[in-house]
Amino acid sequence: MKSVLSERKALHPPSIDDIEHRELPGTAAQALRDLAAEIARTVARSSADAAEFLADPALLAQIGARAGDLPAAVHTAVRPPATAAGACIVRGLPLSDSEIGPTPPDWQSAARWSADPGRTRGSFELDIAMLLLAAAAGEPFGWAGQQDGRLVNNIIPAAGHEFEQSGASSTVLLSPHTEDAFHPLRANMLMLACLRNLDSVGTTVSSVRRVRLPRPQQDILRTPTLPILPDVSYGSAFERAEAVPVPTLWSEPGHEDDPGSLTLRFDPAYTPLGDAGPEFREAYAQLERELERVCAVPALRRGELLLLDNDVAVHGRVPFTPRYDGTDRWLKRVNIRLPERPRRAAESRENGYGQQIVAPFAPMPPRPAVSVREAREERNGAVDDRGSIGHT
């Protein structure tokens, strides 16, 4: 995919006309910001740790309880994408360049700056607004091994990571992938908020429900053949013997012959394709070519949200040249589970390589969840690479 996508210029709606667009009415958007500011004022920010602020039980209880007070237009705007594109852009979140301050040099700095009352308060309030939106859409959660268990992740280019397959990279194509494809509790939906994107850096979005794949190749990819391994951000303390083959494609129950119900689990960078036979590799390569063919490349603007159906669409990012001067691309991300959307029963038998979720808002499936503090203690030297910096 790199040979084409790396040469493709980022486009912006309405040039991308196959991605759904929604508008957050001004009064509803302001009500969201006002509620986030009100909740933020209840937090005594005496610590220098933003993770602790966003993990404060009283704060989270307010967010969970008061998300229902948001105007109906907010709930409507953040419902899952409704078209085959598997993605939706929501416009209208009020956000000024001055209130968020300069783009931090890395996610750790973003967390510290958000917690510092001497700096601009916009980023912290936006974290709360993101959690309010995510709670209106479903169940927000984080990963113990990702950005120290924070529920809101900052996606920022970082010096020294330019050529990695990482959300902190810049000068290479971030390959299309299902977010956290290795885990049965991966998000159903991702919410990405754009704080800054002066260079119109494009996010690649490809929906499996737009591909044309012969049924024999579909059947090959429906057969559990290879595992998807955790990316390096989750450390290396797992046994390859734990790896369980998973299908790349499947359909919603009762709709096996309907291409509009196709679902995928896709991360070629962490799928040991060399262990498969030639028929599987060719089917997988054809799927890659089709995902490239149907790829849209929207470039988010400040105040826009991108909702991605993580069961339907893969995403990545086109290359760009970072400046590291406080004006680079800056996104915030929240993982969301949709309780009304159960996954395949077979996934309940997967161990997820021991990776745990941080899920303070609602009961999750019967797997252990950890607090943010426990998440930070359990990192065990995991490298801050693709997932921990932000695989987006």
TrEMBL record:
User: The organism sits in which domain of life?
Assistant: Bacteria
One GO molecular-function entry: oxidoreductase activity
Residues reported in the UniProt entry to bind 2-oxoglutarate: T223, R329, R333
List positions binding Fe cation. Answer: H177, E179, H315
Q: Where is the sequence biased in composition, kind Basic and acidic residues?
A: 373-392
> Record's InterPro entries?
Clavaminate_syn-like, TauD-like_sf, TauD/TfdA-like
Q: Gene3D superfamilies per the record? A: Clavaminate synthase-like
Q: Which SUPFAM superfamilies match?
A: Clavaminate synthase-like
Disordered, as annotated region: 342-392
- Report the protein name in the record: Iron hydroxylase
Q: What is the lineage of its organism?
A: Bacteria, Bacillati, Actinomycetota, Actinomycetes, Mycobacteriales
